[in-house]
Predict the structure.
Amino acid sequence: MSSKAASSTAASTSTISTSLPVASLGTPRIGPRRELKFALESFWSGASDEKALIEAGVGLRAANWARQKKLGVSVIPSNDFSFYDQVLDTAAMVGAIPEIYGWNGGPVPLATYFAMARGAQGKTHEAGCGHAHGHDAAHGVPALEMTKWFDTNYHYMVPELTREQKFVLASRKPIEEYEEAKALGYQTRPVLLGPVTFLKLAKSKDAGFNSLSLLDRLLPVYIEVLRELASRGAGWVQIDEPCLVLDLDIVAQQALQHAYVEIASAVPQLKIMLATYFGGLGGNRDTALALPVAGLHLDLVRAPEQIEDLADFPDERVLSLGIIDGRNIWRADLSRILDSIEPVVAKLGKHRVQIAPSCSLLHVPIDLALETGLDPEIRSWLAFSVQKLEELTTLGTALGSGRAAVEASLKNSDQAAAARKASPRIHDAKVAARVAGIDGAMRRRASAFAERSTVQRKRFNLPAFPTTTIGSFPQTAEVRKARAAHGKGTLTDEVYKIYLQDQTARAVQWQETIGLDVLVHGEFERNDMVQYFGEQLSGFAFTTHGWVQSYGSRYVRPPVLFGDVSRPKPMTVEWWQYAQSLTKRPMKAMLTGPVTILNWSFVRDDIARSEACRQIALAIRDEVADLEAAGAGMIQIDEAALREGLPLRKSDWKAYLDWAVDAFRLCSSGVRDETQIHTHMCYSEFNDIIGAIGAMDADVISIETSRSKMELLDAFRDYRYPNEIGPGVYDIHSPRVPQITEMTGLLRLARERLADTQIWVNPDCGLKTRKWEEVQPALVNMVAAARELRESA
């Protein structure tokens, strides 16, 4: 559809009053042009004060409410905004602040909130300062652990609870933001993370402790918030319990029943919309239907089968139908959706049905109208947050007043769906033939790890506890400015290349100076670890303003994987060759793996994800072969997102892990024994998938372990993982610089779990988002920690 047609559709749907309620479960909070990011980073740098940050939040919330109202949304949320993370907001609300943050009660200050999110440096970070611990005034405090929000690419801060945990209302944010919206004329439905999901997401250092045992201490705080919301005029509150799509045991199911009986008894005048998403209720269906709530939201995108059996749906309860995909950006087939839900509306009655996105729209960009440079054909296939709400208002009108009321919009939707299906840009016969020709030999290394490792140690002759980094170095404002100038054409290709070569040479020289054993080139030429490769592969498109939040102020623009994938030409060989020419030390070649490229993209929905992943794997396999032919001895293929793609139900795990591991082996197994394959994985609980990690058969795996204090290595020890491991000793998601003693302490914990010959020393992740003044002392300390270990080994 043309931009003119899109505008016409927007205008027509935004002014139509629907008789079927259209609900929004939550919207992106970052601002159309990343206003929240810039406000946060200005505040963190000291360039602006707390008042300016708070005012920025007020402006973004007001704009979000106004936008939804204009688009025809009848159920508008409040408290879906956050300065960092909604789970961290909930921890602040209930006073779950660990002792190390020095909170003494009362409202939680922003300084404490951000210390939990990002850590706090303290007074000094000189390399080699000799304090034994990192939690004193001089060296600040670390951030809370961070991990993936269910199976999305959004990160949440993990609440840290104790057996003796006490809860108290310490942040009135849900109440304040409801009042803020009301003062602007918006009657909103406040959103809270449910008490059972909150406890399920939390962790404790107390052995043998089930966080659900704290439910009776937690509920009074929730009830206090709900009572005050009711007293201030809230008729409905949305409580999110996505844990209902997990495999819950009887204890968790009983906890849900107990929680909502208590809430219903304490606040009978308030109606609760219980929101589930990211999957189906499955074995928790009876539990969910038995809860004393006024409404239930179902995700019919991830679990469309839930619409088929509503015979026992409780009388008078409102059913919220999640019919527009809140996690992907493809335009909906509106006629097909109407065909599936019209019988449900007819059966239950219009007064008992709401329509909504499948989940919060936090996971999609804000407005497709900003993408003026995107290929018009591909653009016509897409819908961002604004367009998804327009789709919902169209559906609401059709369901309330009949299809004839939105005939033009439905016709446009039908035409877009047919055009995408018929487009010759989607399928490539050569790619299909190559996928069909994959055989078992392409998935296996020539020799077992025990044989390969002997050859590799002889080739590289590294010291014990070899040091390296994960790949990227800081992308400074100067680097970003040069990239932007090159993109605008004000910096020529030749001048830009010379600039990047200079940055690379400086990084290589500095690594040699501080004594790193295995070097990286720094990736100054790369905008993003997925986008950089997608831009050089067929089948991908890219947006300009398609930002989504990963965590805090870290936003990404996921590539749009719309068609079959192949590699027209080498992507990284020239830069690796240049970097290796600057040093005699091993220079790792850096690639992003097929599963991560898949999971960090908006993926086409017309073929199986496993098929798309195999196509990407073959393209990466070609790059690996070219790197090896050019002389690369170490090739790192990052699979940072392997675990986040794991299905939420254990019954679905094997199928996913089989094709994910298969894709990694397909791209990595065509090399000689002497070529060392590395991989990297981000925040993951490895216990459940350690067999799959072993099956990947990478020679070296680096993982993020600093925040968990090496607990994640327990899985590798129990599994008796034979290959080599780099457990991260430097938390790069915090500006805090760890001291030598902290790193040696972490490495000693690693040695309790692994053999010395297995251990590499590296940061948790790439250093792209950090500043050089943080990175330099941290890596100097890391090298010193490794040397100290060698001396004591």
Q: What stands out?
A: The chain is about 40% helix and 10% strand. The CA atoms of residues 65 and 76 lie 7 Å apart. The longest strand covers residues 318-324.
